[in-house]
Amino acid sequence: MDTKRTGTTDPFNSLREAITRVMKGQRDPEAVKAACERMDRMREEIRQKHGVLDIAVPSIRELRDR
């Protein structure tokens, strides 16, 4: 978590603060950029560890073809 912005490492407090900003219509470009970078890192770690996880498309096709 970004302790510089929130002053805490508690993910629930960070989430509450983010929700409060969204409800007020406020966007924090730095927070958005940091979140995107975290998601990109996590996605790459998962891809390297498990390979490409093609779960949704086959499942949707199976449900559709019933």
3D structure, described in words:
The chain has four helices and no strands. By secondary structure, the chain is mainly alpha-helical. The N and C termini lie far apart (43 Å). 0% of the residues are buried.
Keywords:
66 residues; mainly alpha; 73% helix
Topology readout:
Elements: H1 3-6, H2 11-23, H3 29-50, H4 56-64
The helix count comes to 4
What is the residue-averaged pLDDT?
Answer: 86
Report helical residue fraction.
over 70%
Terminal CA distance: 43 Å
Number of E strands: 0
Question: How large is the radius of gyration?
Answer: 17 Å
Major sheet attributes: none
Give the topology string: H per helix, E per strand. Answer: HHHH
Explain briefly what this protein structure is.
The chain is mainly α.
